[in-house]
Amino acid sequence: MKKIIYSVIAATMFVWGLSSCSPVDSDDHSLGGSPVNSSALSISANVTTDETGQANVVTVTNGSQAQSGVRYYISLDGKSLIETAAGASVSQIVKKKGDYTAQLYAFSACDQQMISTSYSIAENWKDPNASDEPEGWMGFTAGTNLLATWAHDNNYWFSPSDWSGGLNPNLDGNLQEGLTFTIPAGTGGDQWMAQVHIEHNGPTLSAGKNYDFSIVIISPVGGIKATVKPQMEGDDNTFFTADQYPLNEGLNVIALSNKPGWDGLFKIALDFAGAPAGAEFTVKRAFLTEHNDANVAPFDYNSSKNLLKDQPFGTDFRFWFADGGWAQIADPEHDGDATSLFCLTVPSGMGGDQWQGQVHIPFDNVKLSAGKKYNFSIVVVADNNVPGLTVKPQNDADDNTFLSADRHAIAANVPTAIVFTGREGFDGKFRLCLDFGGTPAGTKVTILDMYLAEQ
């Protein structure tokens, strides 16, 4: 990349040099001018918060000394250059967490120098105006949500380890916009010492019917457990589950499918005993519906079984997009090239047929075995309807050997889980092929939480 940038800029510097620099007796460069004084170059990067309080703003400063006949350029992405005078700065919001490098280029009519600086972004930037950032699957969506307009009451019982109660978690909000609370100092560590009850005015369920339920818990810490107990109001012994679920830092979705109902009102009891004092939790997006076969939960990306977790894309990662006549067009813009988050924008001019918008993601370090069965899932979010997304987990060396090659309709702005279970394996390297043929141009698609594991 540096050679490319130098070659582009060199032509500009040549013209500029002929008109603004005079030959110097002590140097024999054909363009004249003076060499860049490398000891006078300086660059620094500082990460600060924006108006939303997120530490994603990087300011890169050209701290170099001014030199006669020298122009300075800063690159924040290794591709484009921004002319920046000595002592001046450029800033931008960096949306993806990770380690980054910024470069300072110095050009005279006869010389070129480059230095760089590094900085880190700790968290992904979240658009405060977005209703739901695609952090991951947000729970079930198929069917009528019986909790969509639930005018519930919020109650709690938090206690020290002596079971005396009396602690206040400052519970506030609702399940639609977010119910928040903070673990009080002195809360005990035994189960049921940090209870949250979302109750009253709930829907009436029916015995003989089965139900799907999901709820989102946003946790500031990992390594703790939450009890999730969707139950009959007034009867603690009738419930979908009363299990404790391990929480990761960030987004957690608890999903229960095809659970037998009861004749009575619905409520939710939660317990967060064992969480550290001061930890603030958010509970939201509770969803309850009569059972629908379309409600399928993806597998846990963070599971130790996940063969794709933190795996890099292979050396043969590539696109093949074509127009309606099957002539190849430019690759789509893309970023976040990781199994946890991969984004692309569908280019203009792509055809409407299947296989005219191919993405090939090989995993050089992941090999499957014939005779074993595998589970696979991804989560897809798109800002337009996608009429048919082909998802083809396959043998890297054989297009005819795959776990599935089905097409899936994706509704706009709905995080959708695509799940395959118990699929026969093969002897060979694993590749994920996706196809977006027929998707409207300009559609931004995010693929989250790629998962593959032995059954």
Shape descriptor reads globular
Per DSSP E runs of 2 or more residues, the count of β-strands stands at: 30
Uncertain residue segments: 1-30
Radius of gyration: 28 Å
Q: Please, how many helices? A: 1
Largest sheet: 7 strands, antiparallel
SSE class: mainly beta
User: What helical percentage do the residues reach?
Assistant: under 10%
Give average pLDDT, whole number.
90
From the N-terminal CA to the C-terminal CA, the straight-line distance is: 43 Å
Taken as a percent bin, the fraction of beta residues is over 45%
In short:
With 455 residues, the chain is mostly beta strands. The protein contains one helix and 30 strands.
Please specify the SSE layout and strand pairing.
Blueprint: H1 2-20, E1 43-48, E2 57-62, E3 71-75, E4 82-83, E5 89-93, E6 98-107, E7 112-121, E8 153-158, E9 172-174, E10 178-182, E11 194-199, E12 204-205, E13 210-219, E14 224-232, E15 235-239, E16 244-247, E17 250-260, E18 264-271, E19 280-290, E20 318-321, E21 333-338, E22 341-345, E23 357-368, E24 373-382, E25 386-395, E26 398-402, E27 407-410, E28 416-424, E29 428-435, E30 444-454
Antiparallel strand pairs: 1-2, 2-5, 3-4, 3-6, 6-7, 8-11, 9-10, 10-19, 11-18, 12-18, 13-17, 13-19, 14-15, 14-16, 14-18, 20-23, 21-22, 22-30, 23-29, 24-28, 24-30, 25-26, 25-27, 25-29
Describe this protein's structure:
This protein has one helix spanning 2-20; strands at 43-48, 57-62, 71-75, 82-83, 89-93, 98-107, 112-121, 153-158, 172-174, 178-182, 194-199, 204-205, 210-219, 224-232, 235-239, 244-247, 250-260, 264-271, 280-290, 318-321, 333-338, 341-345, 357-368, 373-382, 386-395, 398-402, 407-410, 416-424, 428-435, 444-454. The chain is mostly beta strands. Strand 1 (43-48) and strand 2 form a beta hairpin. The chain is globular.
